[in-house]
Amino acid sequence: FIAGMGSSSGLPLSEILLEFLLHHLRWIPVCFILLPLSFLYDHATRLRNRIVHYVNSAPKAHNRKVAVIQAEVREWATGDKKKKMCNARSGWSTMSFRYPLYKNTSTLISTNTLIDILEMDEEARTIRVEPMVTMGELTNYLLPRGYSLPIVPELDDLTVGGMINGCGVESSGRKYGLFQHICVSYEIVTADGSLVVAKKGTEDAESQGLFYGIPWSHGTLGFLVAATIRIIPSKPFVKLTYMPVGGFKDMTTKLQSESSVAENEFVEGIQFSQEMGVVTKGRFSDGPPKNREMNAIGKWHKPWFYTHVEGIGKKQQEVTEYIPLRDYYHRHSKSIFWELEEIIPFGNNVFFRWFYGWLCPPKISFLKYTTTGAVRRIYERRHVLQDMLIPITDLEKGLQVFHEKTEIYPVWLCPFNLPTCPGFVKQKSGRNVLYVDVGVYGVCKKDDYEPKKTTRELEEYVRSVEGVQMLYADTYMTREEFYQMFDSSLYEWLRVKLNAKEAFPDVYDKVKKEARF
């Protein structure tokens, strides 16, 4: 096996052996160093946030932090402008697997202090937050108060800024769309240091244009310093029904039918093989009947959620459970979808879960910071991390394409409605169109897999069906191909209007493969 790896990669056998050992023994530092550090960091952060909320210091501190950012931007604007600007967040702390190279040659602006929830308005049903606030922090804050975001991307460490400047999708997307579609306004510092508010539904054409232009722009129009987001009343539980299905056609049909049911708050699919998958539908609930028990899937000793779903799928029987709402929202966090198995192969073992599971999961940023060059080369050659958004009418064919190119399972399937509106991601039908996020995460074992060639083939297919690629992932498209996939008309107008061209790199130059390692 090792000799085969050596011949396929062109590296000396000794180096391949080292990579193999570092990769397969990575669980040792993860279990004994990163898991305890992650646990302590999370608890320290929660304590800090409780103190901030108790003394209500965030709003005043926010004004000071924004003033510092404005001063730094104005200092850049009065200088020689040889370097473009970007945020000062460390490359290892981002959720993308890659390290951004452009930070090494940019002027760094101190946006990494924007980590607080600012205010909740129950009457308007909105919450105003800084961009580094995470999904985990928001559910911890909102759920005890009887509210929730309409869309909660499931990994705890995903940030509001990442979901706006990038993209956020969840199983409630069939009802609410993408994360950007639940936002009411954005506050950004522009290239001259001005603080601008972009609002939805305003009569100011420039403000409304900026509102639609910010999503997917990856910080290339200005620095996001706050966002106001819708909140909705919630209940403490989700009544979740698991519905086993067969192959790709059955999965597509079931996802389409359940996504059209107005009462379904959540719809999700997981395809475990060519022959078997499971669709889940969920609704808010006050709790299980007296003769039923809840399934607290978020407890440390519970099996990883996807393995629980797979077990139900193999029995080919429909099952209904009552799950605490926060456990449902973060159902994939504990196992980082199914990626943690690659790092801790025995992580779902019952003894590990009972005695060590309370420390899980390791923080993705810590994993990224401690990834050695040797392990990174293995990921480079074999690891696939892609989310492709395609019309659900093309899902059956799309699943077949992904099978032929990668043969990676499970595959995450999340339907969402994409409305007709201006922006970087634009469909022009004049109505809502049901799309699905096809999430492929894992190690490709196909002999003919070649990262660049295979990814370009997948990108070509996605463009052909008028789909888009999430830009946290490796992008091998040329500039021309990239702007065939995305609509740059509003984006380019805003870049000129805001004098952003000399201040910030073009979005393609930030996300292309050559800009990351």
From TrEMBL:
GO terms for cellular component: cytoplasm; membrane
A GO molecular-function annotation: Delta24-sterol reductase activity
Single Gene Ontology BP annotation: steroid metabolic process
Catalyzed reactions: 5alpha-cholest-8-en-3beta-ol + NADP(+) = zymosterol + NADPH + H(+); lanosterol + NADPH + H(+) = 24,25-dihydrolanosterol + NADP(+)
Organism: Pristionchus mayeri
Mode of membrane association: Single-pass membrane protein
A Pfam family of this chain: FAD_binding_4
Protein name in UniProt: Delta(24)-sterol reductase
Enzyme Commission (EC) number: 1.3.1.72
